[in-house]
């Protein structure tokens, strides 16, 4: 803008005033501080909500105790007061936080009747246990090295008899539990004799152990002999095998009941060896033809045709029961 005026010499003076224009000035940076406080408050709020959701009641109580300052001179909550409904360290009677603590307090004793006390006293007493039976002395076998000769022989005979009895029971059970041999139980005779444990395989009408006139045992006889071998293999006793026929004359191709009974006994010997019996344990193989019938009053009975396997006693002693 120009303005006219007069100078000292009477001339006119031109004064030029210029005003700078431009954009309106800014209001300063105070709004940034306010915005930062708002964002901080929101972060604190969301952090608080997350803590409330992610912590348990006990953890929140611990946080409340942590942020409640301990002031031994104050009697009222200071600082944050009672956050999260927790207890403060300035509770009456305590100089430290009592949050979560259990304080036993003495109160009036309940009224109890004598009959209740007697009943509880009886209930508290343990039930009397039944008297223990008197201890049974263990049957220990004596040491053979400390026994006299006569007693030693009796003890060895007793042990041998017990072992043979156990073998007899095992063989009976093995035949009884096998469905294929259950019908042959009547054709198996097991007994203790003065020589030892005698096991006899008897023929029966329409149930022979060997083919007529033949020395090879059939399948049923082989199965029974395999059972006998399995039981006898557990013992160290010697073995004697004998074959017997009935009184029916048998003579063909220069063979008689003597040869037939001997051949059958020898066939049983081979089956026992195949079943695991050591050959050194076999003490004898004999054929008695019809000279020792099982049923003397009926010499032609099928039961007289038999083969016997005897587990010999190891020590002299009384005969079996």
Report what the structure shows.
There is one protein chain. The chain is α+β, with helices and mostly antiparallel strands and 321 residues long. Among the domains are: 58 residues, no CATH class; 166 residues, OmpA-like domain (60s Ribosomal Protein L30, Chain: A), CATH 3.30.1330.60. The chain contains six helices and seven strands, in the order ββααααββαβαββ. The strands form two sheets. Strands 3-4-7-5-6 form a five-stranded mixed β-sheet. It has a two-stranded antiparallel sheet with strand order 1-2. The longest helix has 28 residues. It is rod-shaped and about 190 Å long. It starts with a strand and ends in a 9-residue tail after the last strand.
As for the CATH topology of the domain at 147-312, it is 60s Ribosomal Protein L30, Chain: A
Counted by DSSP, the helix tally is: 6
The CATH architecture name of the domain at 147-312 reads 2-Layer Sandwich
Mean pLDDT figure: 77
């Amino acid at each position: 803008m120009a303005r006219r005026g007069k100078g000292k010499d009477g001339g006119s003076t031109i004064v030029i005033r210029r005003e700078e224009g431009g954009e309106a000035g800014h209001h300063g940076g105070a709004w940034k501080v306010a915005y930062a406080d708002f964002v901080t408050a929101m972060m604190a709020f969301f952090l608080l909500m997350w803590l409330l959701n992610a912590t348990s009641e006990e953890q929140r109580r611990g946080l409340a105790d942590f942020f409640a300052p301990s002031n031994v001179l104050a009697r009222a909550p200071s600082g944050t007061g009672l956050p999260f409904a927790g207890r403060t360290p300035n509770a009456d009677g305590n100089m430290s936080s009592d949050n979560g603590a259990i304080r036993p307090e003495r109160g009036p004793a309940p009224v109890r009747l004598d009959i209740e006390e007697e009943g509880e006293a009886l209930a508290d007493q343990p039930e009397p246990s039944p008297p223990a039976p008197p201890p049974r002395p263990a049957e220990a076998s004596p040491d053979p090295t400390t026994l006299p000769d006569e007693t030693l022989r009796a003890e060895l005979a007793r042990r041998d008899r017990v072992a043979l009895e156990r073998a007899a029971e095992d063989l009976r059970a093995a035949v009884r539990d096998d469905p294929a041999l259950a019908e042959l139980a009547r054709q198996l005779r097991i007994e203790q004799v003065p020589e030892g444990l005698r096991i006899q395989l008897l023929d029966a009408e329409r149930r022979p152990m060997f083919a007529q006139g033949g020395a090879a045992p059939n399948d049923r006889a082989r199965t029974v002999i395999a059972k006998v071998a399995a039981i006898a293999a557990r013992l160290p006793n010697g073995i004697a095998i004998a074959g017997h026929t009935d009184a029916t004359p048998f003579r063909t191709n220069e063979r008689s009941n003597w040869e037939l009974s001997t051949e059958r006994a020898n066939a049983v010997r081979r089956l026992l060896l195949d079943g695991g019996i050591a050959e050194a344990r076999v003490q004898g193989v004999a054929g008695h033809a019809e000279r020792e019938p099982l049923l003397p009053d009926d010499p032609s009975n099928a039961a007289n045709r038999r083969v016997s396997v005897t587990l010999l006693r190891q020590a002299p002693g009384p005969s079996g029961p």
